[in-house]
Amino acid sequence: MEKKDVIKLVKEKGVKFIQLWFADILGSLKSFTITERELEGALESGKGFDGSSITGYAEAEESDIIAMPDPSTFRILPWEGSTGRMFCDILNPDRSPYPGDPRYVLKRTLKRASELGFTFYLGPELEYFYFKNSNSPEVLDEGGYFDLTAVDLANNVRKQTVETLEAMGIPVECDHHEVAPSQHEIDLQFAEALTMADRAMTYRMVVKEIAQRSGIYATFMPKPLFGLCGSGMHTHQSLFKDGKNAFFDPKDKYHLSKIAKGFIAGQLKHAREICSILAQWVNSYKRLVPGFEAPVYISWDQRNRTALIRVPLDKPGKEEAMRAELRCPDPACNPYLAFAVMLAAGLEGIEKGYKCPDPVEPNIYKMEASEKKDIGLEALPVNLFEAISEAERSELVRRTLGDHVFTRFIYNKKNEWNEDRVQVTSHEIKRYFSIL
């Protein structure tokens, strides 16, 4: 939609309030609300606000910034019929892009891809948990992968969530129960990267909103339950050029083009550097451990779900289905920054002609240490501190995020790590208190 379409629709549907949405550098959704009377002016000139209180945004002495609504993102919130929302680009007072805006970071990286003739498409699988309340992780069910029971509150909530997403113009491919008790997944139909980042932000909001209205709590925390699978955001990626899938080559053994192999090689080579963006919380690294279907080692294959990147074979030989599934991101990341570094690493491999290593077919978790060493298998960082250290040294990450976001992101993550490492946990009390 364009500006005039939004104004017309607001009047026709009796919308009284419009929420202006944007994200801070950690991916938390921020918003302020204007009335229908202010809409036309906001669409024309944006709305100023104080950015000094937004994580990773302006300092106090440079706090005036502008939220410029993107009319193409206007949707009416189904749970509040008189309220609509639009995502915003954040601008400086002179109307130049604000360097702390995560949406701008992604748009800048997409422009680089566009200059090479590519359009970046994504299909993320965001997993999450339902719990009885927000005070403790008490599960609603003991179900497993694809389980369906006759009477299940979570299934009904998930159905309402899908209906709400569809009502907001977000197509859903499928939904199902995941591996762990009370764990669920709703898969969004693939879309261009900026659209998908906006949809991922909306998805998280909708999942939580519908859960809350149903008297339960939804969380995207990567690892809320010890000893069970955590929640990932396996992300299916492809580049299209001139309307065709640039990853597809019918003559190749794996049906992968030179472009696809360069893209995969780029993500493998820079995996450790970009990991703190894809798995950005201390808790994220409780998920990235062997034995719980999460990737640990930097490798690729077609069938092997212990590999970092998988090339799915659900539609062998089909051009439109050729894609690379990156398995280390989790659903609590900032999708704008995550999609940006994923694309940047892939493009680096294409532009610099990185050689794609051979696929690793065996179950990596069952391989001996000597076998891993022989084939040169590297591991992802084992904790947030290691991941931050890799990112801090990375020219690719700094260039992709820009100095503003890069320095503030690293600063915030170091603070998180330092705060966490001095905590005395219940596990430590249980393990050591009575014996030391």
The appropriate CATH architecture of the largest domain is: 2-Layer Sandwich
Beta-strand residue percentage: 15-25%
Helix percent band: 25-40%
What's the tally of helices? 13
Q: What radius of gyration results from the CA coordinates?
A: 22 Å
Number of strands: 16
Say which CATH homologous superfamily of the largest domain is assigned.
Answer: Glutamine synthetase/guanido kinase, catalytic domain
Number of domains: 2
* Annotated CATH topology of the largest domain: Creatine Kinase, Chain A, domain 2
Element-level helix/strand string: HEEHEEEEHEHEEEHEEEHHHEEEHHHHH
Q: Which structural class fits the helix and strand makeup?
A: alpha+beta
Please characterize this protein's 3D structure.
By secondary structure, the protein is α+β, with helices and mostly antiparallel strands. The chain has two domains: 3-93, Ubiquitin-like (UB roll) (Roll), CATH 3.10.20; 107-426, Creatine Kinase, Chain A, domain 2 (2-Layer Sandwich), CATH 3.30.590. The protein has helices at 3-13, 39-45, 102-115, 153-167, 193-213, 258-269, 271-278, 284-287, 335-351, 369-374, 384-392, 395-421, 426-432, and strands spanning 17-23, 29-35, 47-50, 64-69, 75-76, 83-91, 119-131, 172-177, 183-188, 191-192, 217-219, 233-241, 244-245, 297-301, 307-310, 324-326. Strands 7, 8, 9, 10, 11, 12, 13, 14, 15 and 16 form a ten-stranded mixed β-sheet that branches. Strands 1, 2, 3, 4, 5 and 6 form a six-stranded mixed β-sheet that branches. The chain is globular.
